[in-house]
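A student in our group prepared the protein record below, which I am reviewing. This is what I was given:
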Amino acid sequence: MSRTPEPDRRPPRAAPDGPSRRALAWRRVVLVVVGIGYGIGLGVVLFWPVHVDGEGGLIRVDGAIDLLGRLGMPASVRYPLVQSSLNAVLFLPFGALWAGWFRRQRLHLVVSATILAAMVSLAAEIIQYRYLPERTFDPRDVVANAVGAGLGALLVVLAARAAPAVRPGPE
């Protein structure tokens, strides 16, 4: 005697929080491609044999320093401010890529991006000090890089929270 199975009386499962598996996979492909390009650029900047904003460097910051001078900023503050700002901007994508990798963007990713960037930056500063005689070890760079990564991750977390909820479709 065969028994007819009873219909499933469990309540339907809620939609998973975050993007579908397919959307997450595509997002990660894009993040890997962008991350490779960013990593190459970051490596060039971090391990350039001389200061990237000095003689023989990659960029010139004289215009920004002159502008700050015309705005009345003391000379002793101009260069450190410009250099720290550029370091923070350099690490914004680091934090954004880190936070974008995960299915759900939570605030703890800001903290982990900041800590990870500080560790990477500290390692780079030690390598510069040890193997690149024209470069100098500067703990302010570690702080600025960590702040930049934290801000990049925070931007991704805030953007994810501000984005309208999308119902996942069939995968």
Observations:
- The chain is about 65% helix and 0% strand.
